[in-house]
Amino acid sequence: MRTVRILKKHRVRRWGIVLSAMLMSSILLAACGESSPSILNPQGPVANQESNLFWFILIVATIVFVIVEGLLIYSIVRFRERPNMPLPRQVHGNNTLEIAWTIGPSVFLFAVLIATIYTMFNLGNISNNSPIGQLEIRVVGHQWWWEFDYTNTNPQIITADELVVPQGTLIHTLLKSDNVIHSFWVPQVTGKTDVVPGHNNDKLFRADTPGTYRGLCTEYCGLNHAHMSFNLIVKTPSDYMTWLSGQEKAAQTPTDPAAVAGMKLFTGSGGCFACHGIVGVNLNSYTDPKAAGLVGPNLTHFGSRRIIAGEVLEWDPGSCKVVTDSSGNASIQNPDGCGLYQWLKDPRGIKPENDMVIRQLSPTEIAQLIAYLESLT
Ligand code: CUA
Asked: How many CB atoms within 10 Å of residue 7?
């Protein structure tokens, strides 16, 4: 009696563990759903084709799984050992069976092969099926942030962290790196392509729905590989043209006293201009030859962006309010809630081993720099 009770208790506990594990994993997976971009929610023809292929292969794999596991379970139950059972019938060398389990899997694999080749050809045809003209963008992988050079806009523009494209336009990206191998991936729009030093890959895609889609680096590229994300921002053609004409302009000279002081910090001795370019300040244009020697992102329109250094932090002017007291000293109302403040205070503490070296700035200096950066819209 006692043994039965202990066994029952064990069984209850085992089911308890199994159920809680299932519950935990579904909670974890649900948590992924919100913030992670999914290939199963495609927003353009390339990702669409890729997700169709995924579903096809999943169906084939499910059929194989059900057949194999079904036969396995049937055999385990039907042919289990019973007392005084004779040796079961031996099927070794049965030609029918040998041929069946050679041809069966081949048929499934052939179906997957055909579907894959069909998808590859369709992806190659995407340029024929895209109505609006092609935009060419050189994507440069840095350790650890993304640079986007619009090479066939007139004039050329350069941005970082945010890749802004018009809806429905074929985008031709040229993928370039001068350091290590990265990999460019926007799950909802296009698959992964490696960004290899000395070997420029390229990639065509189109995004059909306006919105913001997260992009990732998907090849391990050093300590901060996980902090090398970007946003693909898809705009309607008219919103895109408004954005583009804003980006083409040189930076405006600020008038607000705090921002003027911030600009002086940027251009002063030991200032940010040693690594960062701003058109109209230390660069004559985006294609100024001086730009080639700058290791940091181009900041000409930093105020229009919302993420910092490969999305290690987000920021927005609303949470970085600059206030000036009666004696003219600028400060940030809530430094802890301002990503840009945290970044300028200690960029290497936030993102170890990144290239941004900065002297210790006072809270006032940080507020002045933020006022200036916010003015660069
Ligand atoms: Cu760049 Cu991983």
From this structure: 10
Please write the tens of the pLDDT for every residue from 115-132.
999 999 988 788 776 667
Contacts of 196 (CB under 8 A, 6+ apart): 175, 177, 181
- Long-range contacts, 117-123 (Cβ 8 Å, 24+): 119/49, 119/50, 119/52, 119/53, 122/49, 123/46, 123/49, 123/204
Q: Across the chain, what does the average pLDDT equal?
A: 89
Instruction: For residue 195, list its beta bridge partners.
Output: 182
C-alpha 248 – ligand 1 centre gap (Å):
29
pTM above 0.90, yes or no: no
How much is the pLDDT for 88? 81
Among the listed residues 68, 56, 187, 47, the one whose alpha carbon sits nearest the alpha carbon of residue 113:
56
The answer to whether the CB of 228 is under 6 A from ligand 1 is yes
**N-terminal to C-terminal alpha carbon distance within the chain:** 79
Indicate the helix (H) or strand (E) that contains 314. strand 313-314
139 Cβ inside 6 Å of ligand 1: no
Ligand 1: centre distance to CA 162 (Å): 16
Both tokens of 353, joined, read 């081993």
* Atom in ligand 1 nearest the alpha carbon of residue 195: 1
Going by alpha carbons, the residue nearest to atom 1 of ligand 1 is 182
Distance 175 CA to ligand 1 centre (A): 13
- Residue 34 binned pLDDT confidence (cut-offs 50, 70, 90): very low
Residue 347 in contact with ligand 1 by CB distance below 6 A: no
Confidence band of 33 (pLDDT split at 50, 70, 90): very low
Containing H/E element for 195? strand 190-195
Kindly tell me the burial class for residue 119, based on how many C-beta atoms sit within 10 Å of its own C-beta (0-12, 13-18, 19 or more): middle
- Of 160, 172, 94, nearest to 132 by C-alpha is 172
Q: For residue 226, give the amino acid letter.
A: A
Q: Which atom of ligand 1 is nearest to the CA of 144?
A: 1
Beta bridge partners of 136: 172
CB proximity list for 364: less than 8 A, separation 6 or greater: 329, 330, 331
**Which run of H or E residues covers position 266?**
helix 257-267
pLDDT of residue 218: 96
